[in-house]
Amino acid sequence: MDSSRYCPECDAPVVGRRDKVFCNSSCKSRYFRRQADAPAPFSHAVPLVDEWPASLVHEPEEDEEENEAVGSRARATHQQLTAAERERTAQEQAFHQLYCSLVERFLTEAGHQLTGWSAGRFVRKLYAAAQEYREHPGLAHAEDISHRRLHDLYWMHDQVQGVVEDIAQQGFFGSGYSAYTVSKKKLRRLREHLVEQR
Question: What is the mean pLDDT of the chain?
Answer without folding.
Answer: 81
